[in-house]
Design goal:
By secondary structure, this protein is an alpha+beta fold. It is built from two helices and nine strands.
Length: 166
């Protein structure tokens, strides 16, 4: 039991390190704006994250940049066991950021392999201070998860008091 707990903690730390590094490569070239400055300038641009230690863990990191009327960005999505990452491109329409997506890892039934994109892969909307990701599964688009703005100088936040349902 102790060995399993140590392995789980090691995988959790590895997952968080990968999320931090996935956004860190871009930030090494140019300083990130503060969350407050980014939010005032654009409701979607910036770094967003989600994490839970429950079950097999789940860690998501998204970085979105605005270039004129278009947006580009990167994503990483994984658990303590497996993960994938890729890119977004999109435009803002009717309060939503509609995106096409691609992946750098092979997926069965998932997004197209970069540099090709899966068109109309989903969209983002703001809900208060959070970013809600809606993804397409077949012909249906469902709410996938809710992300929090990630401070520029920190990795994804992990709730140390999180309670997992059995």
């Amino acid at each position: 039991m102790f060995e399993r707990s140590v392995r789980r903690q090691a995988w959790t730390m590895l997952g968080l390190a990968l999320l931090t590094l996935s956004g860190g490569a871009c930030s090494a070239q140019a300083a990130r704006p503060t969350a407050a400055a980014t939010q005032e300038a654009d409701p979607f641009a910036g770094d967003w994250s989600f994490s839970t230690r429950c079950y097999k863990g789940h860690y998501v990191g998204i970085t979105l940049q605005r270039d004129g009327e278009r947006y580009t960005g990167t994503w990483s999505d994984g658990t303590d066991i497996w993960g994938s990452d890729g890119s977004f491109r999109g435009v803002r329409k009717d309060g939503k950021l509609e995106v096409d997506a691609c992946t750098t890892t092979e997926q069965r039934g998932g997004y197209a392999r970069c540099p090709a994109y899966t068109d109309d892969a989903g969209y983002f909307v703001r809900r208060g201070e959070q970013l809600v990701w809606y993804r397409q599964y077949g012909d249906v688009i469902n709410e996938y998860l809710t992300l929090d703005r990630q401070p520029a100088d920190q990795g994804a936040r992990v709730d140390t008091e999180e309670v997992c349902e059995e």
